[in-house]
Fold this sequence. Notes:
Layout: H1 6-27, E1 35-39, H2 45-53, E2 58-61, H3 64-73, E3 78-81, H4 90-96, E4 99-103, H5 107-118, E5 123-129, H6 143-151, E6 156-163, H7 175-191, E7 197-199, H8 206-211, E8 216-219, H9 221-224
Parallel strand pairs: 1-2, 1-8, 2-3, 3-4, 4-5, 5-6, 6-7
Helix pairs in contact: 4-5, 6-7
Amino acid sequence: MVLDSREAVLANLARVREGIARACDRSGRDPATVRLVAASKAVPAEVVRWAHQGGVEDFGENYVRELEAKREAVEGPRWHFIGTLQSHTAHRVADLADIVQTLSPGNAVARLARRAAQRSRRIPALIEVDFTGERTGVAPEQCVGFADEVSAMNGLELRGLMTLPPMPQVAEDTRPSFIRLRELLAEVRAKHPQAQELSMGMSMDYEVAVEEGATMVRVGTALFGERPPAGT
C-alpha cells in the first residue's frame, strides 16, 4: 500500500538520503552529485507533494496521464518521463516532461524530437540501454551509434544513459550491469562530452548504483511503499 502518512514518507526519505550518503562515503563521492528521482507511479498527488515539501526536486512518471495530472496538481518539481516511450503518446511527453530517460530506436524518439523542435524546446534526454535482450532500449553494442543519431536530432539534448538491469535476487547482482553502463557512458562521452548522466539503481540496489557512479537513482517503493500492480 502507498503510504498515507506525511511523517512516514519523510522518514523514508531520510533513510534513502542516508543510504545515498553511505554509498558516497564508501566510494569517495559527494552526495550532492547524486540526484534522487522519486519514482511516483501510482502515488497520489498529495503524497508527491509531501515528498516535494521534504526537499525532493525530481519525480519520475511512467504514464502520460499521470504525468499530466500530477504536473498540474504539484507545482515546482522537475518531471522525468521514465516509462516506455511510445509513438502515439511521444508528442504528449514532449509537451509535459522536463527530462526523458527512455530513448530507444524507433518512431517514438523521432516524434518526440520533432514535437520538441516545433515547440522550440531541447529536451534533456537519456538513452535506455537494455542488457537483457528482452526489454525496450538499445543493445549495448549499438549504444554509441544510437547516441550519434540522438545528438543529430533537433529538439533533443543527449545527457547520458539509463538502464533497468535484470531483476536481482540481491542488490549485488546488479553491479555488473552498472559497471558496464558506466563503461558505455565513457565511450559515448568520448564523442559527445555533454553526456554526463548515469541513471541507474532503484529501491533495492541504489546504494550499489551510487558506488558505481550513478548520478541519478530512481527510487519508488523505498520512499512511498508498495504500489498496486499495473491494471489494478
